[in-house]
TrEMBL record:
<dbReference type="GO" id="GO:0034599">
    <property type="term" value="P:cellular response to oxidative stress"/>
</dbReference>
<dbReference type="InterPro" id="IPR001709">
    <property type="entry name" value="Flavoprot_Pyr_Nucl_cyt_Rdtase"/>
</dbReference>
<keyword id="KW-0560">Oxidoreductase</keyword>
<dbReference type="InterPro" id="IPR017938">
    <property type="entry name" value="Riboflavin_synthase-like_b-brl"/>
</dbReference>
<keyword id="KW-0547">Nucleotide-binding</keyword>
<keyword id="KW-0274">FAD</keyword>
<dbReference type="InterPro" id="IPR008333">
    <property type="entry name" value="Cbr1-like_FAD-bd_dom"/>
</dbReference>
<dbReference type="InterPro" id="IPR001433">
    <property type="entry name" value="OxRdtase_FAD/NAD-bd"/>
</dbReference>
<dbReference type="GO" id="GO:0004324">
    <property type="term" value="F:ferredoxin-NADP+ reductase activity"/>
</dbReference>
<protein>
    <recommendedName>
        <fullName>ferredoxin--NADP(+) reductase</fullName>
        <ecNumber>1.18.1.2</ecNumber>
    </recommendedName>
</protein>
<dbReference type="InterPro" id="IPR017927">
    <property type="entry name" value="FAD-bd_FR_type"/>
</dbReference>
<keyword id="KW-0285">Flavoprotein</keyword>
<comment type="similarity">
    <text>Belongs to the ferredoxin--NADP reductase type 1 family.</text>
</comment>
<keyword id="KW-0521">NADP</keyword>
<feature type="domain" description="FAD-binding FR-type">
    <location>
        <begin position="14"/>
        <end position="114"/>
    </location>
</feature>
<dbReference type="GO" id="GO:0042167">
    <property type="term" value="P:heme catabolic process"/>
</dbReference>
<dbReference type="InterPro" id="IPR039261">
    <property type="entry name" value="FNR_nucleotide-bd"/>
</dbReference>
Length: 268
């Protein structure tokens, strides 16, 4: 397709960084990832999101994007959906290395380790691009300092949509920073709903029926040991929240840590 328009003299507002795209990888006609340079002054906690846009209009459209890279990484990575006719993603999906992406200066979000009370096992429950904040957290040593075990779940429509996180978890074993920490402690449980796969069904249904716990060889979720984070579409958040509350977990926030947290700023 056509590259997104990139006016040379676009005035960058004060509260925005203008960064350069360093890599783009497309997984399916609906999903892709991209990386941008990281401003030296930009700090965030793994799991947070930031507003991003393109310099293609006098008033650029900004959308919330979870940062998929860990807080120690020298670049910033995002995992994005491509919405046909979407005000941002219609253009964003055409970016190439060398293009400019705008990023607002202030990161925020609830999917941070500090918003959970201590526990033994951390569940990260996602659908589609909702896996992005967890791609950040599974590469952060602090996650393994705080939890003995991490169970990352992603449900997607199709098998190819699982490639991003599947390849990342595979590569993590060789990672110099967390490679040894993830050994035997990070599990990835992927499922599909619309294409045949070895594990099928929505995570909500699989947890309610108990099938998930049987397949994974894990005890049912219990408030004594288990903590959870949820990221996905609004319907998924609501349904998953109800499932966790059914197991006795309680929703927390940055200023009131509890046994699970939800990211509501996320847009699919
Ligand atoms: P399904 O195929 O049954 O709709 P989407 O691409 O539409 O955001 O969906 C991503 C994945 O999330 C799909 O596998 C979809 O399953 C699943 N999903 C959609 N809504 C919910 C929900 N309310 N609870 C759990 N999973 C959901």
């Amino acid at each position: 397709g056509q590259p997104a328009p990139q006016p040379a003299n676009w005035p960058v507002p004060d509260n925005v960084f203008a960064e350069t795209v360093t890599a783009v990888e497309h997984y399916t006609d609906r999903l892709f990832r991209f990386r941008i340079t990281r401003p030296a002054s930009f700090r965030f906690r793994s799991g947070e999101f930031v507003m991003i846009g393109l310099p293609n209009a006098a008033k650029p459209v900004f959308r919330a994007y979870s940062i998929a890279s860990p807080s120690w990484d020298e670049e910033i990575e995002f995992f994005s959906i491509k919405v046909p006719g979407g005000p941002l993603t219609e253009h964003l999906q055409k970016i190439r290395p060398g293009d400019t992406v705008l990023m607002r200066r202030k990161p925020t979000g609830t999917l941070v380790l500090d918003a959970l009370v201590p526990g033994k096992r951390l569940y990260m429950l996602s659908t589609g691009t909702g896996v992005a904040p967890f791609a950040s957290l599974i590469r952060d040593p602090e996650t393994y300092e705080k939890f003995e075990e991490v169970v990352l779940v992603q449900t997607c429509r199709e098998v190819a949509e699982l490639a991003y996180i599947t390849r990342m978890v595979e590569a993590l074993k060789e990672d110099p920073l967390v490679g040894e920490m993830v050994e035997g402690r990070l599990r990835l449980h992927t499922t599909t709903t619309r294409e045949p796969f070895e594990r099928m069904g929505r995570i909500t249904d699989l947890m309610t029926s108990g099938r998930f716990f049987e397949d994974a060889g894990l005890p049912p979720i219990a408030p004594e040991d288990d903590r959870a984070m949820i990221c996905g579409s609004m319907a998924m958040l609501n349904d998953t929240k109800a499932v966790l509350e059914g197991f006795g977990l309680i929703e927390g926030a940055n200023n009131a840590p509890a046994t699970f947290v939800v990211e509501r700023a996320f847009v699919g």
